[in-house]
Every structure is written in C-alpha cells, then in structure tokens.
C-alpha cells in the first residue's frame, strides 16, 4: 500500500505569503483542489447554495482556516505545527496503523492512502481544536488549530480514521448504514486508537457518559439499532447539541440524546466484546457488527445476547 502525503500545510503557507489579492484564488487551487475527493460529496448537504465557489463553501463548512482570517496568526499556527512535527508524527501513526491492520491480507483493496493535515479556523472546532475524517476511501484527513497540549492526541485520530477506511470496506457496511453498524464502527475506531496510542490519547467523547447513563440509554439504542435514516442515525451518534451546532444552531435533532452518546456507547460495546472474546481491536475490525453488538452483551441482535451485566465497568 502506498502512503502519499498531501502537503496542505505547505500550500497554506504559500497562500498566506502571497499578495492579498491573489490569496483566495490560490487557496482554492493549492489547498482545496487537492482535497476535492474529501469534500465534493459534502456539497450535497450544504444549505443556501454554494455560489460561484463551491470549494470555499466546503471550506467554511469544514471550519478550515481561510486567508481572510489573517496572515500573521495563520503563519504562527503553521510554525507551531511544523515545530511540533505534526505531519511527521501522523505519517508515522498512519504507517503503524497500516502495519497492524494488514488490510491486504483481509482482501481490502486500498492501493493508496493519502494523508492530509489541514489548518482549522481558530474557533471552529471547539475546545479540543482538532478533528479527523476517514469516510472517503483512501483518505485520512486531520484538521487542527494548534493547541500544544492536544497535538499529542492527533496520532490517535489518524489511527481512528484509518480504521474507518478499512472498516467501511466490510460487507456489512452498506449505504444507507444502520445505527448498529455506525455505532460499532465508531467503537472499533476508538478501541483501535486506544490500543496503539493508549486510552489517554482519546478525545473526551468516549468518556463523557458514565456506565449508569449508558445503561439508561441502551433500550433506546436497542430499539433503533436497525434504523437507516441517516439524519436519525447521526442524531444517535452525535447527540442533539452537536447536531445543532453543526447546522448553525438549527434544531435538526430532538431525540433527547446526550452529546457524543454514540461514541461513548460504541466504545463500551466494543471494549466489552473484546473482553468477552479475547479478540484484539485489529482482529475485531473484520468482524460483522451484529456479532460484535450481540456478543458484547449489550444488545439482542437477531435473537442473540442479553442486556449488559451490572458487573461491567467503564
């Protein structure tokens, strides 16, 4: 498998060092165009039209740093990312993830994986200041506004997103995907990242809810496990607050689901599956979601398994 770095940070430096009247056109050409496979489908979900420059509409939706946000602070942020060796560390993390998952040995055809680190807007990604995406086959993208004590967590994000790349090639991952498939995919990605980089490297979303809260939510997830309406599925995974924030404050989900509940429950489900079966996260990446959900002890799937035991711990 070939790993290709897309030097988006270097391109952004070129943009910010160029004359101001050339920056926007150069941003579209040098930063956004190489990333087109990762954002082109996003345009279908944008509201209010994309105008003459769909790439800019996508960049704003993705909370990327734009030239209009200022030359000095943008260059200072790029200097921090370079000094902290963010690109090198995440390239190494991707190489390690590939070596551990061995997708080719499992019939997964990913001849090339592209890694792109992008500069996020200063206030676009909340307190954590970083996010990742692995939903485009052959792409792992990270977006970060440098917050020095969080940069060390980025390799875990890279591992998480590459796990998605592999998992999304599985036979039981079809569109429209079910809530159960999505729930298990997030739990697998976080479990894989934790196995490679330590549980302390994970973001807060997997630990926001305690075991008692997850038990209270379990019947609602059980009832919706085969739901395939993407809007509803995302509401269960991300929660009402996150979905509202993503849509600019519009209440797109009123399920009464806490923020990142799907991540927290998915991680618990996979962790218990691994404990019950002795499988590793890398091995479980190739297991059907129904098997993982049922044998975790959290869900009844097609007549299998029972509700979680009270002896389980977070």
Q: Tell me, rounded to a whole number, the average pLDDT.
A: 90
Order of helices and strands: EHHHHHHEEEHHHHHHHH
* Largest sheet properties: 4 strands, mixed
Unreliable sequence segments: 306-314
Gap between N and C termini, in Å? 36 Å
Estimate percent helicity: 40-55%
Total count of domains: 2
Shape: globular
Alpha plus pi helix count: 14
Structural class: alpha/beta
DSSP strand count: 4
Domain DUF2268: 111-286
InterPro entries: DUF2268
Pfam families: DUF2268
How would you characterize this protein structure?
InterPro entries: DUF2268. Helix 1 runs antiparallel to helix 5, helix 6 (86-101) runs parallel beside helix 7 (154-167) and helix 7 (154-167) crosses helix 8 (179-197). The protein has two domains: 2-167, no CATH class; 179-295, no CATH class. The chain has helices spanning 8-16, 20-32, 36-39, 54-61, 71-83, 86-101, 154-167, 179-197, 211-223, 230-238, 240-246, 261-277, 281-284, 289-295, and strands at 2-6, 112-119, 130-133, 139-144. Strands 1-2-4-3 form a four-stranded mixed sheet. It has 314 residues and is an alpha/beta fold. The chain is globular and about 60 Å long. The protein has 14 helices and four strands.
